[in-house]
């Protein structure tokens, strides 16, 4: 049914139609509305059977999901930012055990400095956790990809993270088509676990494995993710057939055919990027965009194919690998190995800083005329940074960076005496 | 010798010299689970525990009792630690029941997840046990444990307390007793061993959650442990059993002294054995043969620095004071005199 609805509520309704049997909830913005929505649905008896567990931490949330999934129940949770980091140990465990848990990550920056706004620092930090990572551009796609996520996870026995931009998507009211229960049931078969804790056929799950087989277990996890490179487009294709609209998949190309410059990005910023691409196209600039829908597994071949004819690629990233720069850019570099394509990294939108068309226009124009340095921080306030650097030189006890710079901006009133 | 049976009725046994009662002397329904030929053997032979490991013994008795109570319909979640490591050296496993190990600090939450899944599936017959060492339970898993308790999840959690992080080489935990030498509280300096005035009583904290059942037990009284597991399995909701288990390696004790040490821990008053229901202590196992703490301490090299090179009368006295406080607080000797007398009489007959 087509509804005017908040992104989080749309996801909550959709997840409910995927019939999870155990949902673990712990509050953190901007994810909270999703589990709130689910709590209402479960409590009202609209989703049964389902156990909604209010846990004491994200670490517990993922651990409860692990226990539930290993007992053959379809398990779901949602988190963001600090919460994702707090469950890191359990994330690796869930994937190591091959448990098909589905989790929404409402992407948000990580502290310090504590910041509740959107960027991709959280999920990017878990790129090696063994979870499949799908990034969505819109709330419609969030809805559609969640349905696919359960099917993928269970087919492959791997956990899947659906990453949607916090606030930008989770709190946006939009018209969204939420599939009916019968449609979802038709697409998503009941969960048939590959391994299950069953007294009738006892198994040991999570045994200690030494050097003699550890590599093989890890290799298998990698192998399954590589299999996902085939399964993801197949599942997206099946979805399109069943629901009559495209969603998910590995990549989405936008006007890349003859493009000399291609902008690579993930998530909701792609809409803005495409608007700017259109504007520049009108001025005769041969530019296009490539949206990464699946970041893990990394669709190396597909990315290479999409970018190989460009002269330059700008990877616009909402995350920063401190000490090197881009994260996605490193992966793109690898995909383009041996090709004469220049790769530039632009870090933008950290901690919720708006990514404006104006900034993008300037960035893309500079890129197109090869004026961009290897690493650019879009809209960085150099004078603010220089001021703090000067304070550090002037005084040993220069104090905390964040507070100093906020004071300079006039956001924190009190000045030290 | 007099004691009470499972139903609380006083029965009289005519065996002397030890507290053990031979199975042939009791009614079939009172016999030890371990005496049954068809016992579950939940943790079977071939595991890699040290000789005399109290944790292996305690887990075997506890899980077989739980298996009997559940009619074999049981799932176990295990924290990282000796029990997990010695029971599942790849590609072997000692577990004869469905068993999962996830992480060090999440066994209570994994158990919750199992229980939630069973509920969602309408399965009311399969039961869930979570288990871990003192480090996994009292320290790193404590938030998950407390969460499991306060929600009242249908899990029996068993802590095998050997009073330190044994698996990683005997480091201090919040269950390590004062003055004990561990590799992170070494026997050097003015106050050698674990610091004074630290540590927590996990069983009493569990009781404070007002869950249906909390008990402490030791491997010195395995029938009592079996009975408590049986009692715990008869109720639903969050339940907790804290079992003192000896560790010859970590305690620096002879393998053959495991049972003796656990018994001394109770008879000195250092480890009170009790049961609680919904926030109240409802029964206490009286001390039957009081012993000074010294008898317990001197058998373990983790306390050797209390006796040599100089005898630390001050520290021994402080430990005795702690035992005395337990005796007072839990009434461990109240009304128990007659038992001692009879015991002594029988011993001499
Ligand atoms: C998060 C984490 N921290 C530390 C460890 C290392 N570690 C594994 S077992 C263990 C000791 C376990 O002690 P305890 O729970 O008391 O069980 P025991 O081995 O004494 O039976 C430690 C510290 C770990 N596996 N995971
Ligand atoms: S170190 Fe201690 S707890 Fe671990 S197996 Fe040996 S005796 Fe048992
Ligand atoms: Mg221990």
What secondary-structure arrangement, pairings included, does this model have?
The complex is a heterodimer of chains A (417) and B (349).
Chain A (H helix, E strand, L loop, with lengths): L1 E5 H11 L4 E4 L6 H12 L7 E4 L3 H13 L4 E5 L1 H6 L1 H10 L4 E6 L13 H4 L7 E4 L3 H18 L3 E6 L7 E5 L3 H7 L16 E2 L8 H30 L7 E4 L6 E5 L3 H14 L4 E6 L1 E3 L3 H8 L4 E6 L10 H8 L6 E6 L9 H12 L6 E3 L4 H13 L6 H9 L8
Parallel strand pairs in A: 2-3, 2-4, 4-5, 5-7, 6-7, 11-12, 11-14, 14-15, 15-16
Antiparallel strand pairs in A: 1-8, 6-13, 10-12
Chain B lengths: L1 E3 L5 E3 L41 H16 L4 E5 L3 H6 L11 E3 L5 H14 L6 E7 H6 L2 H10 L4 E6 L40 H7 L4 E6 L3 H12 L5 E6 L3 H4 L6 H10 L6 E4 L2 E5 L8 H5 L15 H17 L7 H12 L1
Parallel strand pairs in B: 3-4, 3-5, 5-6, 6-8, 7-8
Antiparallel strand pairs in B: 1-2, 7-9, 9-10
Helix pairs in contact in B: 1-7, 3-5
Iron/sulfur cluster binds next to helix 2 and helix 8 of chain B.
Features:
heterodimer, A: 417 residues, alpha/beta, Rossmann fold, 3 domains, seven-stranded mixed beta sheet, six-stranded mixed beta sheet, 15 helices, 42% helix, 18% strand, globular, B: alpha/beta, eight-stranded mixed beta sheet, 12 helices, disordered C terminus, binds thiamine diphosphate, binds iron/sulfur cluster, binds magnesium ion
The beta-strand count of chain B equals 10
Low-confidence segments of chain A: none
Task: Return the average pLDDT of chain B rounded to an integer.
Answer: 91
**What small molecules are bound in this structure?**
thiamine diphosphate, iron/sulfur cluster, magnesium ion
Number of strands of chain A: 16
Determine the structural class of chain A based on helices, strands and strand pairing.
Answer: alpha/beta
Look at the structure and give the CATH class of chain B.
Alpha Beta
Write a brief caption for the model.
With 417 residues, chain A is α/β, with parallel strands linked by helices. Chain A contains 15 helices and 16 strands. In chain B, helix 1 packs parallel to helix 7 and helix 3 runs parallel beside helix 5.
């Amino acid at each position: 049914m087509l509804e005017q609805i908040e992104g989080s509520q749309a996801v909550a309704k959709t997840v409910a139609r995927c019939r999870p049997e155990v949902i673990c909830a712990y509050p953190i913005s901007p994810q909270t509305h999703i589990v709130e929505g689910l709590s209402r649905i479960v409590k009202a008896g609209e989703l049964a059977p389902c156990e909604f567990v209010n846990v004491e931490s994200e670490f517990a949330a993922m651990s409860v999901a692990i226990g539930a999934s290993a007992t053959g129940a379809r398990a779901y949770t949602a988190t963001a930012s600090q919460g994702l980091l707090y469950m890191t140990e359990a994330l690796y465990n869930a994937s190591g055990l091959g448990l098909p848990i589905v989790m929404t990550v409402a992407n948000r920056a990580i502290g310090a400095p504590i910041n509740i706004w959107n960027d991709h620092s959280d999920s990017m930090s878990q790129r090696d956790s063994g979870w499949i990572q799908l990034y969505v551009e819109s709330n419609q796609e969030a809805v559609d990809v969640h349905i696919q996520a359960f099917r993928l996870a269970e087919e492959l026995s791997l956990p899947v993270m659906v990453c949607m931009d916090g606030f930008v998507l989770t709190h946006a009211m939009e018209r969204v088509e939420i599939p009916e229960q019968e449609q979802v049931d038709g697409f998503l078969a009941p969960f048939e676990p590959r391994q299950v804790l069953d007294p009738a056929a006892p198994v040991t799950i999570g045994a200690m494995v030494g050097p003699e087989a550890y590599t093989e277990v890890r290799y298998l996890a990698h192998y399954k993710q590589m299999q996902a490179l085939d399964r993801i487009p197949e599942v997206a294709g099946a979805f399109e057939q069943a629901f009559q609209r495209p969603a998910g998949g590995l990549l989405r190309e936008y006007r890349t055919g003859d493009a000399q410059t291609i902008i690579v990005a993930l998530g909701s910023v792609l809409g803005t990027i495409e608007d700017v691409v259109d504007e520049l196209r009108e001025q005769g600039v041969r530019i296009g965009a490539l949206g990464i829908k699946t970041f893990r597994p990394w669709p190396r071949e597909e990315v290479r194919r999409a970018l190989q004819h460009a002269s330059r690629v700008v990877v616009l990233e909402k995350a920063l690998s401190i000490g090197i720069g881009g994260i996605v850019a490193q992966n793109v570099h690898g995909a383009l190995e041996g090709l004469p394509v220049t790769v530039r990294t632009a870090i933008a939108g950290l901690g919720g800083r708006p990514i404006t068309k104006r900034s993008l226009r300037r960035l893309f124009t500079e890129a197109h005329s090869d004026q961009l340095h290897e690493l650019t921080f879009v809209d960085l306030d150099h004078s603010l940074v220089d001021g703090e650097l000067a304070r550090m030189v002037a005084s040993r006890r220069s104090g905390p960076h964040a507070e100093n710079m906020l004071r300079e901006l006039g956001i924190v009133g009190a000045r030290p005496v | 010798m007099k004691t009470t049976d499972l139903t609380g009725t006083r029965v009289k046994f005519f065996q002397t010299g030890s507290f053990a009662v031979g199975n042939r002397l009791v009614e079939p329904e009172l016999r030890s689970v371990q005496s049954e030929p068809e016992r579950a053997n939940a943790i079977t032979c071939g595991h890699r525990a040290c000789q005399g490991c109290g944790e292996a013994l305690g887990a075997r008795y506890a899980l077989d009792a739980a298996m009997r109570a559940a009619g074999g319909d049981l799932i176990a979640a295990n924290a990282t630690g000796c029990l997990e490591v010695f029971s599942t050296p790849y590609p072997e496993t000692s577990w004869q029941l469905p068993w999962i190990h996830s992480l060090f600090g999440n066994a209570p939450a994994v158990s919750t997840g199992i229980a939630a899944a069973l509920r969602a599936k309408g399965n009311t017959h399969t039961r869930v046990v979570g288990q871990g060492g003192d480090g996994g339970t009292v320290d790193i898993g404590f938030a998950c444990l407390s969460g499991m308790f306060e929600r009242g999840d249908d899990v029996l959690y068993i802590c095998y307390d050997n009073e330190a992080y044994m698996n990683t080489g005997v480091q201090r935990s919040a269950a390590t007793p004062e003055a004990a030498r561990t590799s992170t509280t070494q026997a050097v300096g003015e106050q050698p061993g674990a610091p004074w005035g630290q540590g927590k009583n996990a069983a009493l904290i569990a009781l404070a959650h007002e869950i249906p059942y909390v008990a402490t037990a030791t491997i010195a009284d395995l029938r009592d442990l079996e009975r408590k597991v049986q009692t715990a399995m008869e109720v639903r909701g969050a339940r907790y059993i804290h079992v003192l288990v000896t560790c010859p390696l970590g305690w620096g004790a002879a393998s053959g002294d495991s049972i003796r040490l656990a018994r001394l821990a109770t008879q000195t008053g250092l480890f009170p054995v009790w049961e609680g229901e919904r926030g109240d202590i409802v029964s206490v196992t009286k001390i039957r043969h009081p012993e000074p703490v010294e008898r317990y301490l001197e058998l373990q090299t983790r306390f050797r620095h209390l006796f040599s090179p100089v005898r630390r009368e001050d520290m021994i006295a402080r430990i005795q004071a702690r035992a005395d406080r337990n005796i007072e607080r839990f009434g461990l000797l109240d009304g128990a005199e007659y038992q001692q007398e009879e015991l002594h009489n029988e011993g001499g007959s």
